[in-house]
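Below is a filled-in request sheet from our internal design queue. Each sheet records the structural input a requester submitted and the sequence that came back. We keep these sheets so that new team members can see what a complete request looks like end to end.

REQUESTER: design group, bay 2
PRIORITY: normal
MODE: inverse folding
CHAIN LENGTH: 440
BACKBONE (tokenized):
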């Protein structure tokens, strides 16, 4: 850990991408334009309906709804949490402490592949949900019911704030790799979640837990879904159509997307040169830049979706939240492009370090003598193609999701022309994202 890998989240920039950036950007823009053109010609009516799509999976539902299965998942989530807490409280304040990898790699980045494969996994393993459930059982209360009803106007704004607090801690706070601040952040998170669960019940976790909201959104690209309690299997695009529109949804998307873009930007040569030559505090500059990226992404998307004709009785400023689901595949594409090497390699390193949580030379998990496999880093062409493809596919899927929603929402005369501002916004995201990927 002393080699600074925790700080190099991109582990990827120009050195990992032995292909022409101009060619990659031109190809990505062409893919978006062609996709939109094909959709405009061949896709004239909505095809995804969350209320009717999908097939039941009764045999699989018997397994996943079994009490034993749910208990195993909760025990697993609590065990990992307690192991991390053990390392955080009693371990050494060194980067070899596994709590840093568990916090920044397993928890933050690992939720994406797990949610893509398994659905809303954080909801199933969340230790704060488990603790809240235990308190409810002891007191004889219902964990779904709190003292108060969760205010609808809050939507997922608390989750957006929580996500921003995490990315600020990871990307801007200069003591992010010291044990004390990480312990404080986790303790604050747990305290707020338990208090919120007591006051508003499980609804609080669905809308205010930053990691549950994050995991549940990514899970909309998995084939697994629930409808009226029934487990169904359906197209990820049909599943994506079922994202519930709530206040603050655009803010959540903006934080997730903007922070990933900023993580690339802060490693770029122009920014590094600027902050080195500036007389302004580096911390202040990074704080302002992170905020600017998140707010900028939100504004570009909001303007791109609102700048269209709307039907009578519909506010154009209601459209950004209606179209926010189309940003989910773009976010996933950028996370894959930006964090793939980091997750695979530092994730392995964390598993090795987790076997010695106190830094005393123990091998409690039997993984202490394992070594990190750097196969991905040794195949830069494959890595480059994977990163560019992840960005391009994410944007193309986003265009498809936005087009289907536009056909349903917009008046007939604006169904195609009304999408042009959003298409331009997505082209800007593509060009900017790939530029930062190469510049980092």
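RETURNED SEQUENCE:
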């Amino acid at each position: 850990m002393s080699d600074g890998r925790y700080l190099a989240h991109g582990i990827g920039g120009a050195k990992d991408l032995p292909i022409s950036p101009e060619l990659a950007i031109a190809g990505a823009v062409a893919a978006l334009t062609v996709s939109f053109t094909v959709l405009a010609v061949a896709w004239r009516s909505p095809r995804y309906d969350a209320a009717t799509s999908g097939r039941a999976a009764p045999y699989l539902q018997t397994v996943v709804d079994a009490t034993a299965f749910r208990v195993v998942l909760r025990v697993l989530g609590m065990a990992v949490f307690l192991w991390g807490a053990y390392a955080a409280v009693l371990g050494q304040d060194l980067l070899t402490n596994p709590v840093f990898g568990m916090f920044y790699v397993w928890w933050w980045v690992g939720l994406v592949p797990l949610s893509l494969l398994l659905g809303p996994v954080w909801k199933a393993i969340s230790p704060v949900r488990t603790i809240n459930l235990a308190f409810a059982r002891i007191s004889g209360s219902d964990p779904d019911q709190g003292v108060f009803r969760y205010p609808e106007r809050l939507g997922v704004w608390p989750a957006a704030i929580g996500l921003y607090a995490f990315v600020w801690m990871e990307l801007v706070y200069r003591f992010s790799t010291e044990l004390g601040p990480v312990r404080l952040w986790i303790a604050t998170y747990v305290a707020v979640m338990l208090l919120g669960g007591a006051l508003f019940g499980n609804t609080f976790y669905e809308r205010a837990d930053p990691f549950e909201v994050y995991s549940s959104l990514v899970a909309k690209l998995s084939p697994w879904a629930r409808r009226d309690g029934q487990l169904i299997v359906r197209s990820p695009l049909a599943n994506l159509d079922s994202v519930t529109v709530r206040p603050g949804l655009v803010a959540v998307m903006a934080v997730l997307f903007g922070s990933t873009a900023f993580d690339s930007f802060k490693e770029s040569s122009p920014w590094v040169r600027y902050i080195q030559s500036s007389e302004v505090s580096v911390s202040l500059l990074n704080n302002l830049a992170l905020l600017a990226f998140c707010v900028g992404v939100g504004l570009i998307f909001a303007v791109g979706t609102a700048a269209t004709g709307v039907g009578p009785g519909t506010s154009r400023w209601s459209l950004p939240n209606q179209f926010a689901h189309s940003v989910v595949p773009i976010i996933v594409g950028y996370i894959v492009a930006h964090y793939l090497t980091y997750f695979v390699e530092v994730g392995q390193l964390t598993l090795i370090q987790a076997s010695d949580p106190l830094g005393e030379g123990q091998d409690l998990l039997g993984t202490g003598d394992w070594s990190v496999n750097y196969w991905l880093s040794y195949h830069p062409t494959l890595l480059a193609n994977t990163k560019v493809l992840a960005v391009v596919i994410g944007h193309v899927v986003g265009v498809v999701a936005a087009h289907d929603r536009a056909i349903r929402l917009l008046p007939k005369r604006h169904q195609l022309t009304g999408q042009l501002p959003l298409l331009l916004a997505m082209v800007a995201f593509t060009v900017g994202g790939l530029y930062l990927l190469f510049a980092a």
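SHEET NOTES:
- Residues 1-16 have pLDDT under 50 and may be disordered.
- Residues 75 and 119 are 18 Å apart (CA to CA).
FILED BY: M.R.
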